[in-house]
């Protein structure tokens, strides 16, 4: 089961001029097997939504709730959220010098499962995951995200999605900065995840391009810290043709 | 018409082949009068807790035979002793501070290690010295690497007491020598001294300094060149706990063209009054055209109450170089790194250990000596397990 329920979520960040409200009451439910795309212009709060759900300390939740299968996510620490089944593929994955991808993946898998993976199958699993994302076998000996190209960083995020096997994946602009080949590889990785039982996906994007490869069940237009409109995949097509202008002028 | 007394003098001064006036590298001399007892205001002593040196700078003979010495590896390369002034002793090292001058003066005969020309040693050689509490010792070691030889020398310091030790290294033309110095002293030990190398034409010298233990450890690792094309890599790793003062001073004198130097020192500090000092001096003389140098010091401050000083100094007398740079950073844990790891389910404590492990691993894997790499990885893990896990963080 995977049911991520976001109800009237309000979030602010500290600025020099005091707290600034970014999310102004977001309500969204992602049920078993559903893929939701959130689309919106720059600065609308899309990434804030992703990082708030993951528990980044920069963001303060001032109201509302987030639950995963009924459990209060906001009460959990960052790592508890991950162990509860949330995964955030980041737009800008962080370099961790001196920590190999192999070490990192094994440590994360052990943490998420509560026990070390069986060595024999694990090595096979890691190699298969990397291979499917077109990352060669020397990749696992490199330091996490250090010196990775933009495409390698994103493919590494999706390899983690495959191996850590969360309940709900939040993909924050995973498509940004990818060429078309890399975009296809990453999309195929996400689609393989979606084919598994009872997985939820929240796909945050600025562009409609990735939606040609990952077909969402629902599309939400995100403007000024909340959902301005929701619909099916056809809404993405309308956005492609018309852009965000009508929502932006309405928000003003 | 101007008459120059000796045209060679003016050429010498134009190229500054001799001394360059600078506080970075005081006049070298065997004469103790040139190195008076410091007051603590001197540039080269201002970071050092003089009161805690426990007589290390006193001009009195030490306790003879108070240092127990074991040979590491093949003892046949320890070829004898060298009296003061007996070459090659004095070829590379002329003391540049009082500690070094005292080590030289009171050490008596120096231990002479010699790797013959063209010899390639498969296993490291070296010495393990163990000090005794309540004693003062002086030691001078001369390591001579013959032309085109290849070897690793390890100097392992343990135990207690007050120790002034010099290491003088002559790297022959085309030789490849690695010197590893481990400071794994007991918590009350004091260690001062200078490691000075002269690097031959097209030779490669690596100096790896690891400091985990001691009350005060203050070492200078210096390099200069005997000809063009020499390469020096100076690596350092240290972990200072409460009350420990670890001071690593480095000086690379690019006195020959097309020489290279690369300095990377990394340290972690934790606990009340843990203190580290890193001084990275690099001089690029006028003759040193087409050289390349880079120095880097990174400190990870794990708790409140620690202090890390990091002072890179670069003096450039010629612009005709390939590259010169330095980086220095002293920081706490990076919140974004921790967030990234924790967002993958890794607990806060384990995320910190992983970041710290990686911080040192980044340096350890540059060493290229598998056995030492394993040992250091284990030592770092041990420090982490003892100190980071659960306690202060």
Given this structure, which CATH class of chain A is correct?
Alpha Beta
Would you list the SSEs of chain B in sequence order as H and E? HEEHEEEEEEEEEEEEEEEEHHH
Strand content of chain A: 25-35%
| Low-pLDDT residue intervals, each spanning 5 or more residues of chain A | none
Q: Which chain pair has the greatest contact? A: A-B, 30 and 26 residues
CATH architecture of chain A: 3-Layer(aba) Sandwich
Number-wise, the strands of chain B total 18
* Biggest beta-sheet profile of chain B: 9 strands, mixed
Cross-sheet strand order for the largest sheet of chain A: 6-9-10-3-11-12
Number of helices of chain A: 8
Number of helices of chain B: 5
Class from helix and strand fractions of chain A: alpha/beta
What's the quaternary structure here? heterodimer
CATH topology of chain A: Rossmann fold
Name of the CATH superfamily of chain A = P-loop containing nucleotide triphosphate hydrolases
Which class of secondary structure composition applies to the elements of chain B?
Answer: alpha/beta
Characterize the largest beta sheet of chain A: strand count, sense, and whether it forms a barrel: 6 strands, mixed
The figure for the number of domains of chain A is 1
């Amino acid at each position: 089961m995977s049911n991520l329920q976001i109800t009237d979520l309000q979030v602010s960040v500290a600025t020099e001029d005091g707290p600034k409200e970014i999310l102004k009451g977001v309500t969204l439910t992602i049920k078993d097997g559903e893929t939701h795309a959130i689309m919106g212009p720059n600065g609308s709060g899309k990434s804030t939504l992703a990082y708030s759900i993951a528990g980044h300390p920069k963001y303060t939740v001032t109201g509302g709730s987030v639950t995963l299968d009924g459990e209060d996510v906001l009460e959990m620490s960052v790592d508890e959220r991950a162990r509860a089944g949330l995964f955030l593929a980041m737009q800008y994955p962080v370099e961790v010098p001196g920590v190999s991808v192999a070490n990192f993946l094994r440590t994360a898998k052990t943490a998420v499962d509560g026990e070390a993976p069986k060595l024999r199958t694990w090595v096979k699993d890691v190699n298969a995951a990397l291979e499917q994302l077109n990352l060669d076998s020397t990749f696992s000996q490199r330091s996490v995200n250090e010196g990775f190209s933009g495409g390698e960083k994103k493919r590494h995020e999706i390899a983690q999605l495959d191996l850590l096997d969360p309940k709900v994946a939040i993909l924050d602009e995973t498509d940004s900065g990818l060429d078309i080949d890399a975009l296809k590889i990453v999309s195929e990785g996400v689609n393989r995840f979606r084919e598994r039982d009872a997985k939820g996906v929240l796909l945050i994007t600025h562009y409609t391009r990735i939606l040609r490869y990952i077909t969402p069940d629902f599309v939400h237009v995100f403007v000024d810290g909340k959902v301005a409109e929701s619909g099916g995949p056809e809404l993405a097509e309308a956005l492609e043709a018309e852009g965000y202008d009508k929502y932006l002028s309405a928000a003003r | 018409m101007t008459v120059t007394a000796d045209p060679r003098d003016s050429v010498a001064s134009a190229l500054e082949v001799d001394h360059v006036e600078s506080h970075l590298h005081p006049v070298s001399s065997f004469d103790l009068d040139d190195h008076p007892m410091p007051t603590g205001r001197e540039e080269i002593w201002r970071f050092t807790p003089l009161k805690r040196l426990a007589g290390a700078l006193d001009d009195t003979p030490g306790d003879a035979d108070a240092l127990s010495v074991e040979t590491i590896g093949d003892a046949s390369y320890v070829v004898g002793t060298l009296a003061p002034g007996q070459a090659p002793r004095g070829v590379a090292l002329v003391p540049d501070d009082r500690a070094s001058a005292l080590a030289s003066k009171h050490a008596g005969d120096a231990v002479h290690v010699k790797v013959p020309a063209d010899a390639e040693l498969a296993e490291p050689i070296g010495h393990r010295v163990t000090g005794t509490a309540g004693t003062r010792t002086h030691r001078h070691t001369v390591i001579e690497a013959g032309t085109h030889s290849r070897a690793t020398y390890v100097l392992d310091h343990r135990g207690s007491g007050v120790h002034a030790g010099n290491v003088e290294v002559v790297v022959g033309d085309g030789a490849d020598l690695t010197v590893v110095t481990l400071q794994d002293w007991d918590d009350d030990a004091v260690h001062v001294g200078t490691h000075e190398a002269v690097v031959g034409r097209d030779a490669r010298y690596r100096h790896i300094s690891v400091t985990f233990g001691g009350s005060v450890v203050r070492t200078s690792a210096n390099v200069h060149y005997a000809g063009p094309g020499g390469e020096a890599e100076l690596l350092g790793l240290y972990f200072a706990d409460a009350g420990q003062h670890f001071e690593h001073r480095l000086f690379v004198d690019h006195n020959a063209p097309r020489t290279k130097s690369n300095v990377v020192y990394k340290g972690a500090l934790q606990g009340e009054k843990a203190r580290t000092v890193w001084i990275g001096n690099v001089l690029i003389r006028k003759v040193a055209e087409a050289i390349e140098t880079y120095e880097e010091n990174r400190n990870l401050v794990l708790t409140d109450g620690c202090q890390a000083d990091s002072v890179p100094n670069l003096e450039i007398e010629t612009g005709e170089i390939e590259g010169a740079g330095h980086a220095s950073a002293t920081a706490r844990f990076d919140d974004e790194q921790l967030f990234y790891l924790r967002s993958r389910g890794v607990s806060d404590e384990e995320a910190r250990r992983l970041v710290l492990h990686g911080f040192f691993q980044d340096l350890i894997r540059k060493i290229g000596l598998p056995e030492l790499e394993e040992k250091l990885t284990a030592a770092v893990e041990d420090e982490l397990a003892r100190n980071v896990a659960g306690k202060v963080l």
